[in-house]
Amino acid sequence: MWELQIKYTGLLKAWNDGPVKQLVPPDVETEHKQMLSAANKLASRFENATPKVLKPMSVASAMSKNLVEFRPYIPIIHALCNKGLKARHEEEIKEAITIEISPETKLHDLKNIGIKEKREVLEQISDTASREFNNENTMQKMKEEWEPLMFTCKEVAGKESKILAGDAVELIQTILDDHIIKTQTMKGSPFAKFMLDEITKWETVLMRTQDNLDLWLKVQAVWMYLEPVFSSDDIIRQMPVEGQQFKEVNIAWHNLMVRIDNDPRAFTVIEIDDLGDTLKLANTKLERVQKGLRDYLESKSGQFPRFYFLSDEELLEILSETKEPLRVQPHLKKCFEGIHKLNFDDEKKIHGMYSIEGENVPYVKIIDPIASKGAVEDWLL
Predict the structure, then answer these.
(1) What is the dihedral sign for C-alpha 251, 256, 261, 262?
(2) Which of 297, 335, 334, 340 is nearest to 319 (CA)?
(3) For 283-329, how does the pLDDT look when each residue is reduced to its tens digit (9 = 90+)?
(4) Distance, CA of 277 to CA of 285 (rounded, Å)
(5) Which of 264, 299, 334 is the last residue of a domain?
(6) 197, 208, 267, 277, 283 from 204: Cα distances, Å
(7) For 224-254, what is each residue's pLDDT tens digit?
(8) Domain interval for residue 122
(9) Are residues 110 and 161 both part of a single domain?
(10) Counting beta carbons within 10 angstroms of the beta carbon of residue 325, is it exposed (0 to 12), middle (13 to 18) or buried (19 or more)?
(11) Do 202 and 91 sit in the same domain of this protein?
Protein backbone atom coordinates (compact mmCIF):
# COMPACT_ATOMS: atom_id res chain seq x y z
CA MET A 1 0.00 0.00 0.00
CA TRP A 2 2.81 2.42 0.78
CA GLU A 3 4.39 1.69 -2.61
CA LEU A 4 1.02 2.51 -4.16
CA GLN A 5 0.80 5.69 -2.06
CA ILE A 6 4.19 6.87 -3.35
CA LYS A 7 3.21 6.15 -6.95
CA TYR A 8 -0.22 7.75 -6.50
CA THR A 9 1.22 10.93 -4.96
CA GLY A 10 3.80 11.37 -7.69
CA LEU A 11 1.49 10.69 -10.63
CA LEU A 12 -1.41 12.77 -9.34
CA LYS A 13 0.94 15.72 -8.85
CA ALA A 14 2.36 15.27 -12.37
CA TRP A 15 -1.14 15.07 -13.85
CA ASN A 16 -2.47 18.11 -12.00
CA ASP A 17 0.57 20.39 -11.90
CA GLY A 18 2.41 19.46 -15.11
CA PRO A 19 1.62 20.96 -18.56
CA VAL A 20 -1.60 19.27 -19.65
CA LYS A 21 -0.46 19.21 -23.30
CA GLN A 22 2.48 16.99 -22.36
CA LEU A 23 0.33 14.28 -20.85
CA VAL A 24 -0.06 10.97 -22.70
CA PRO A 25 -3.78 10.11 -22.37
CA PRO A 26 -3.48 6.30 -22.81
CA ASP A 27 -0.77 6.17 -20.14
CA VAL A 28 -2.81 8.34 -17.77
CA GLU A 29 -5.87 6.14 -18.28
CA THR A 30 -3.92 2.90 -17.77
CA GLU A 31 -2.10 4.10 -14.64
CA HIS A 32 -5.33 5.51 -13.19
CA LYS A 33 -7.21 2.26 -13.77
CA GLN A 34 -4.45 0.16 -12.19
CA MET A 35 -4.11 2.42 -9.12
CA LEU A 36 -7.87 2.63 -8.55
CA SER A 37 -8.22 -1.15 -8.75
CA ALA A 38 -5.34 -1.66 -6.30
CA ALA A 39 -6.67 1.00 -3.86
CA ASN A 40 -10.17 -0.56 -3.87
CA LYS A 41 -8.77 -4.04 -3.20
CA LEU A 42 -6.62 -2.78 -0.32
CA ALA A 43 -9.46 -0.82 1.25
CA SER A 44 -11.68 -3.89 1.01
CA ARG A 45 -9.09 -6.13 2.68
CA PHE A 46 -8.40 -3.65 5.48
CA GLU A 47 -12.09 -3.16 6.16
CA ASN A 48 -12.45 -6.49 7.99
CA ALA A 49 -9.02 -6.41 9.64
CA THR A 50 -8.00 -5.53 13.18
CA PRO A 51 -8.26 -1.99 14.56
CA LYS A 52 -4.51 -1.43 14.24
CA VAL A 53 -4.88 -1.16 10.45
CA LEU A 54 -7.53 1.57 10.56
CA LYS A 55 -4.94 4.18 9.51
CA PRO A 56 -3.80 2.21 6.41
CA MET A 57 -7.45 1.58 5.54
CA SER A 58 -8.22 5.30 5.68
CA VAL A 59 -5.22 6.03 3.42
CA ALA A 60 -6.37 3.40 0.88
CA SER A 61 -9.95 4.71 1.04
CA ALA A 62 -8.75 8.29 0.51
CA MET A 63 -6.69 7.23 -2.51
CA SER A 64 -9.70 5.43 -3.96
CA LYS A 65 -11.95 8.43 -3.37
CA ASN A 66 -9.49 10.89 -4.95
CA LEU A 67 -8.94 8.64 -7.97
CA VAL A 68 -12.71 8.33 -8.49
CA GLU A 69 -12.97 12.14 -8.35
CA PHE A 70 -10.17 12.41 -10.92
CA ARG A 71 -11.80 9.96 -13.36
CA PRO A 72 -14.04 12.51 -15.17
CA TYR A 73 -10.93 14.45 -16.17
CA ILE A 74 -9.46 11.56 -18.18
CA PRO A 75 -11.81 12.11 -21.18
CA ILE A 76 -10.92 15.81 -20.94
CA ILE A 77 -7.20 14.97 -21.11
CA HIS A 78 -7.94 12.76 -24.14
CA ALA A 79 -9.79 15.64 -25.78
CA LEU A 80 -7.15 18.29 -25.08
CA CYS A 81 -4.21 16.08 -26.11
CA ASN A 82 -5.80 14.72 -29.29
CA LYS A 83 -3.16 14.53 -32.05
CA GLY A 84 -5.82 15.43 -34.58
CA LEU A 85 -6.43 18.88 -33.13
CA LYS A 86 -5.71 21.66 -35.60
CA ALA A 87 -5.82 25.44 -35.19
CA ARG A 88 -9.52 25.51 -36.05
CA HIS A 89 -10.27 23.00 -33.30
CA GLU A 90 -8.12 24.88 -30.77
CA GLU A 91 -10.15 27.97 -31.59
CA GLU A 92 -13.40 26.08 -30.90
CA ILE A 93 -11.98 24.88 -27.57
CA LYS A 94 -11.00 28.44 -26.66
CA GLU A 95 -14.55 29.63 -27.36
CA ALA A 96 -15.99 26.75 -25.31
CA ILE A 97 -13.87 27.22 -22.16
CA THR A 98 -13.23 30.99 -22.57
CA ILE A 99 -9.44 30.66 -22.22
CA GLU A 100 -6.65 29.71 -24.57
CA ILE A 101 -4.72 26.56 -23.67
CA SER A 102 -1.01 27.30 -23.93
CA PRO A 103 1.86 24.78 -23.72
CA GLU A 104 2.23 25.76 -20.02
CA THR A 105 -1.45 25.38 -19.05
CA LYS A 106 -1.96 22.94 -16.16
CA LEU A 107 -4.92 20.68 -15.47
CA HIS A 108 -5.13 22.24 -11.99
CA ASP A 109 -5.75 25.64 -13.62
CA LEU A 110 -8.48 24.16 -15.81
CA LYS A 111 -10.16 22.56 -12.82
CA ASN A 112 -10.41 25.99 -11.22
CA ILE A 113 -12.42 27.35 -14.16
CA GLY A 114 -14.85 24.40 -14.12
CA ILE A 115 -13.46 22.48 -17.10
CA LYS A 116 -15.44 19.40 -16.02
CA GLU A 117 -18.67 21.16 -16.97
CA LYS A 118 -17.36 21.53 -20.54
CA ARG A 119 -16.52 17.84 -20.92
CA GLU A 120 -19.30 17.06 -23.41
CA VAL A 121 -18.49 19.89 -25.81
CA LEU A 122 -14.75 19.12 -25.58
CA GLU A 123 -15.42 15.46 -26.45
CA GLN A 124 -17.50 16.54 -29.45
CA ILE A 125 -14.70 18.79 -30.73
CA SER A 126 -12.16 16.01 -30.12
CA ASP A 127 -14.30 13.43 -31.90
CA THR A 128 -14.64 15.70 -34.93
CA ALA A 129 -10.88 16.31 -34.91
CA SER A 130 -10.21 12.56 -34.75
CA ARG A 131 -12.51 11.79 -37.68
CA GLU A 132 -11.01 14.58 -39.75
CA PHE A 133 -7.53 13.40 -38.81
CA ASN A 134 -8.45 9.88 -39.95
CA ASN A 135 -9.54 11.24 -43.32
CA GLU A 136 -6.25 13.13 -43.66
CA ASN A 137 -4.33 9.98 -42.81
CA THR A 138 -6.36 7.93 -45.29
CA MET A 139 -5.56 10.43 -48.04
CA GLN A 140 -1.88 10.45 -47.13
CA LYS A 141 -1.73 6.66 -46.96
CA MET A 142 -3.32 6.32 -50.41
CA LYS A 143 -0.72 8.62 -51.93
CA GLU A 144 2.06 6.73 -50.18
CA GLU A 145 0.76 3.44 -51.58
CA TRP A 146 1.25 4.82 -55.10
CA GLU A 147 4.91 5.66 -54.50
CA PRO A 148 6.38 2.15 -55.08
CA LEU A 149 4.03 1.23 -57.96
CA MET A 150 5.59 0.75 -61.40
CA PHE A 151 4.18 0.31 -64.91
CA THR A 152 6.48 -2.55 -65.91
CA CYS A 153 6.99 -3.05 -69.64
CA LYS A 154 7.88 -6.25 -71.45
CA GLU A 155 9.17 -6.90 -74.93
CA VAL A 156 7.03 -8.34 -77.71
CA ALA A 157 8.72 -11.38 -79.21
CA GLY A 158 10.51 -10.44 -82.40
CA LYS A 159 9.51 -6.77 -82.19
CA GLU A 160 11.18 -3.59 -81.02
CA SER A 161 8.06 -2.29 -79.31
CA LYS A 162 6.97 -3.17 -75.77
CA ILE A 163 3.68 -3.66 -73.97
CA LEU A 164 2.47 -3.31 -70.38
CA ALA A 165 3.21 -6.34 -68.21
CA GLY A 166 0.04 -7.99 -66.89
CA ASP A 167 1.16 -8.49 -63.26
CA ALA A 168 2.03 -4.83 -62.76
CA VAL A 169 -1.23 -3.66 -64.36
CA GLU A 170 -3.29 -6.06 -62.24
CA LEU A 171 -1.74 -4.74 -59.02
CA ILE A 172 -2.29 -1.12 -60.08
CA GLN A 173 -5.91 -1.85 -61.05
CA THR A 174 -6.56 -3.51 -57.67
CA ILE A 175 -5.17 -0.53 -55.75
CA LEU A 176 -6.94 1.89 -58.08
CA ASP A 177 -10.35 0.27 -57.49
CA ASP A 178 -9.76 0.26 -53.72
CA HIS A 179 -8.71 3.91 -53.68
CA ILE A 180 -11.68 5.06 -55.78
CA ILE A 181 -14.09 3.45 -53.29
CA LYS A 182 -12.23 4.95 -50.31
CA THR A 183 -12.12 8.40 -51.91
CA GLN A 184 -15.80 8.43 -52.84
CA THR A 185 -16.73 7.22 -49.35
CA MET A 186 -14.57 9.94 -47.80
CA LYS A 187 -16.09 12.54 -50.12
CA GLY A 188 -19.53 11.75 -48.70
CA SER A 189 -18.37 12.08 -45.10
CA PRO A 190 -19.43 15.21 -43.18
CA PHE A 191 -15.99 15.14 -41.55
CA ALA A 192 -14.23 15.66 -44.89
CA LYS A 193 -15.70 19.02 -45.85
CA PHE A 194 -12.58 20.85 -44.69
CA MET A 195 -10.52 19.02 -47.37
CA LEU A 196 -13.22 18.64 -50.03
CA ASP A 197 -11.14 20.39 -52.72
CA GLU A 198 -8.21 18.01 -52.15
CA ILE A 199 -10.50 14.97 -52.18
CA THR A 200 -12.22 16.11 -55.39
CA LYS A 201 -8.87 16.70 -57.06
CA TRP A 202 -7.62 13.26 -55.99
CA GLU A 203 -10.85 11.62 -57.17
CA THR A 204 -10.42 13.31 -60.56
CA VAL A 205 -6.88 11.91 -60.83
CA LEU A 206 -8.07 8.39 -59.93
CA MET A 207 -11.05 8.42 -62.31
CA ARG A 208 -8.89 9.79 -65.13
CA THR A 209 -6.32 7.09 -64.43
CA GLN A 210 -9.00 4.39 -64.50
CA ASP A 211 -10.35 5.66 -67.84
CA ASN A 212 -6.85 5.92 -69.29
CA LEU A 213 -5.85 2.47 -68.08
CA ASP A 214 -8.99 0.85 -69.51
CA LEU A 215 -8.39 2.60 -72.82
CA TRP A 216 -4.69 1.75 -72.71
CA LEU A 217 -5.36 -1.97 -72.35
CA LYS A 218 -7.96 -1.80 -75.12
CA VAL A 219 -5.53 -0.07 -77.48
CA GLN A 220 -2.81 -2.56 -76.52
CA ALA A 221 -5.04 -5.55 -77.29
CA VAL A 222 -6.07 -4.17 -80.69
CA TRP A 223 -2.51 -3.10 -81.51
CA MET A 224 -1.20 -6.59 -80.71
CA TYR A 225 -3.89 -8.10 -82.98
CA LEU A 226 -3.27 -5.75 -85.90
CA GLU A 227 0.52 -5.45 -85.70
CA PRO A 228 1.24 -8.84 -87.32
CA VAL A 229 -1.42 -8.11 -89.96
CA PHE A 230 0.06 -4.79 -91.04
CA SER A 231 3.57 -6.16 -90.94
CA SER A 232 2.63 -7.79 -94.24
CA ASP A 233 3.46 -5.84 -97.39
CA ASP A 234 0.60 -7.64 -99.16
CA ILE A 235 -1.98 -6.31 -96.68
CA ILE A 236 -0.57 -2.77 -96.80
CA ARG A 237 -0.61 -2.89 -100.61
CA GLN A 238 -4.26 -3.92 -100.60
CA MET A 239 -5.23 -1.52 -97.77
CA PRO A 240 -3.01 1.57 -98.16
CA VAL A 241 -5.24 3.98 -96.17
CA GLU A 242 -5.60 1.66 -93.19
CA GLY A 243 -1.91 0.78 -93.47
CA GLN A 244 -0.94 4.44 -93.13
CA GLN A 245 -3.24 4.95 -90.14
CA PHE A 246 -1.84 1.89 -88.40
CA LYS A 247 1.68 3.14 -89.10
CA GLU A 248 0.83 6.41 -87.30
CA VAL A 249 -0.57 4.50 -84.32
CA ASN A 250 2.45 2.23 -84.30
CA ILE A 251 4.83 5.18 -84.05
CA ALA A 252 2.77 6.80 -81.28
CA TRP A 253 2.59 3.49 -79.38
CA HIS A 254 6.32 2.91 -79.68
CA ASN A 255 7.11 6.45 -78.44
CA LEU A 256 4.70 6.09 -75.51
CA MET A 257 6.13 2.77 -74.37
CA VAL A 258 9.71 4.08 -74.63
CA ARG A 259 8.66 6.98 -72.41
CA ILE A 260 7.07 4.63 -69.87
CA ASP A 261 10.03 2.27 -69.94
CA ASN A 262 12.40 5.17 -69.19
CA ASP A 263 10.35 6.29 -66.17
CA PRO A 264 7.84 3.59 -65.14
CA ARG A 265 6.84 5.16 -61.80
CA ALA A 266 3.06 5.03 -61.63
CA PHE A 267 2.75 8.52 -60.11
CA THR A 268 4.74 9.96 -63.02
CA VAL A 269 2.82 8.01 -65.65
CA ILE A 270 -0.66 8.96 -64.46
CA GLU A 271 0.32 12.64 -64.49
CA ILE A 272 1.39 12.61 -68.17
CA ASP A 273 -0.60 15.51 -69.62
CA ASP A 274 -1.23 14.11 -73.09
CA LEU A 275 -1.65 10.45 -72.11
CA GLY A 276 -5.44 10.46 -72.44
CA ASP A 277 -5.38 12.36 -75.74
CA THR A 278 -2.71 10.05 -77.18
CA LEU A 279 -4.70 6.95 -76.27
CA LYS A 280 -8.01 8.37 -77.51
CA LEU A 281 -6.49 9.31 -80.86
CA ALA A 282 -4.86 5.89 -81.18
CA ASN A 283 -8.14 4.18 -80.31
CA THR A 284 -10.04 6.22 -82.90
CA LYS A 285 -7.54 5.36 -85.63
CA LEU A 286 -7.49 1.69 -84.67
CA GLU A 287 -11.30 1.56 -84.83
CA ARG A 288 -11.11 2.93 -88.38
CA VAL A 289 -8.43 0.40 -89.25
CA GLN A 290 -10.51 -2.44 -87.79
CA LYS A 291 -13.58 -1.31 -89.73
CA GLY A 292 -11.54 -1.09 -92.92
CA LEU A 293 -10.13 -4.54 -92.22
CA ARG A 294 -13.60 -6.00 -91.60
CA ASP A 295 -14.87 -4.46 -94.86
CA TYR A 296 -11.83 -5.83 -96.68
CA LEU A 297 -12.35 -9.35 -95.34
CA GLU A 298 -16.07 -9.12 -96.12
CA SER A 299 -15.31 -8.14 -99.71
CA LYS A 300 -12.93 -11.09 -100.09
CA SER A 301 -15.50 -13.48 -98.63
CA GLY A 302 -18.08 -12.03 -100.99
CA GLN A 303 -15.84 -12.90 -103.93
CA PHE A 304 -15.14 -16.41 -102.59
CA PRO A 305 -17.95 -17.42 -100.18
CA ARG A 306 -16.08 -20.44 -98.83
CA PHE A 307 -13.88 -17.94 -96.96
CA TYR A 308 -16.83 -17.63 -94.56
CA PHE A 309 -15.83 -21.03 -93.18
CA LEU A 310 -12.58 -19.49 -91.93
CA SER A 311 -11.97 -17.26 -88.93
CA ASP A 312 -10.66 -13.74 -89.47
CA GLU A 313 -7.23 -14.85 -88.25
CA GLU A 314 -7.10 -17.76 -90.67
CA LEU A 315 -8.24 -15.61 -93.57
CA LEU A 316 -5.68 -12.95 -92.71
CA GLU A 317 -2.96 -15.58 -92.66
CA ILE A 318 -3.85 -16.44 -96.25
CA LEU A 319 -4.26 -12.86 -97.47
CA SER A 320 -1.07 -11.61 -95.81
CA GLU A 321 1.05 -14.04 -97.86
CA THR A 322 -0.56 -13.93 -101.30
CA LYS A 323 2.75 -14.72 -102.96
CA GLU A 324 2.95 -17.96 -101.05
CA PRO A 325 0.01 -20.16 -102.14
CA LEU A 326 1.20 -22.98 -99.88
CA ARG A 327 -0.07 -20.91 -96.93
CA VAL A 328 -3.57 -21.89 -98.05
CA GLN A 329 -2.85 -25.59 -97.64
CA PRO A 330 -3.64 -25.90 -93.85
CA HIS A 331 -7.05 -24.22 -94.33
CA LEU A 332 -8.29 -26.17 -97.35
CA LYS A 333 -10.19 -28.76 -95.31
CA LYS A 334 -12.33 -25.96 -93.87
CA CYS A 335 -13.05 -24.41 -97.24
CA PHE A 336 -13.66 -27.70 -99.06
CA GLU A 337 -15.13 -30.64 -97.20
CA GLY A 338 -13.49 -33.27 -99.42
CA ILE A 339 -10.08 -31.69 -100.05
CA HIS A 340 -7.30 -32.46 -97.58
CA LYS A 341 -4.46 -30.90 -99.57
CA LEU A 342 -3.46 -29.88 -103.10
CA ASN A 343 -0.81 -31.37 -105.30
CA PHE A 344 1.72 -28.56 -105.86
CA ASP A 345 4.74 -28.98 -108.08
CA ASP A 346 8.10 -27.27 -107.58
CA GLU A 347 6.85 -24.19 -109.45
CA LYS A 348 3.87 -24.06 -107.08
CA LYS A 349 1.42 -24.99 -109.79
CA ILE A 350 -1.49 -27.22 -108.81
CA HIS A 351 -1.99 -30.53 -110.58
CA GLY A 352 -4.67 -32.14 -108.46
CA MET A 353 -6.21 -32.70 -105.05
CA TYR A 354 -5.92 -35.30 -102.27
CA SER A 355 -8.58 -36.53 -99.88
CA ILE A 356 -7.78 -37.26 -96.25
CA GLU A 357 -7.58 -40.93 -97.19
CA GLY A 358 -4.85 -40.13 -99.72
CA GLU A 359 -6.99 -40.46 -102.87
CA ASN A 360 -5.56 -38.30 -105.66
CA VAL A 361 -7.87 -36.65 -108.18
CA PRO A 362 -5.86 -35.02 -111.00
CA TYR A 363 -7.18 -31.81 -112.49
CA VAL A 364 -8.03 -31.58 -116.17
CA LYS A 365 -6.45 -28.14 -116.22
CA ILE A 366 -3.30 -27.09 -114.32
CA ILE A 367 -3.91 -24.13 -111.98
CA ASP A 368 -1.22 -21.48 -111.63
CA PRO A 369 -1.76 -19.40 -108.42
CA ILE A 370 1.12 -17.08 -109.34
CA ALA A 371 -0.78 -15.97 -112.44
CA SER A 372 -3.54 -14.58 -110.21
CA LYS A 373 -1.08 -11.90 -108.97
CA GLY A 374 -2.02 -12.19 -105.34
CA ALA A 375 -5.77 -12.61 -105.81
CA VAL A 376 -6.11 -15.81 -103.77
CA GLU A 377 -9.86 -15.91 -104.24
CA ASP A 378 -9.41 -16.11 -108.03
CA TRP A 379 -7.33 -19.26 -108.17
CA LEU A 380 -9.32 -20.86 -105.35
CA LEU A 381 -12.51 -20.20 -107.30
Answers:
(1) positive
(2) 297
(3) 999 999 999 999 999 998 998 999 999 888 888 888 877 778 888 88
(4) 12
(5) 299
(6) 11, 6, 14, 16, 22
(7) 989 888 888 888 888 999 999 999 999 999 9
(8) 2-133
(9) no
(10) buried
(11) no
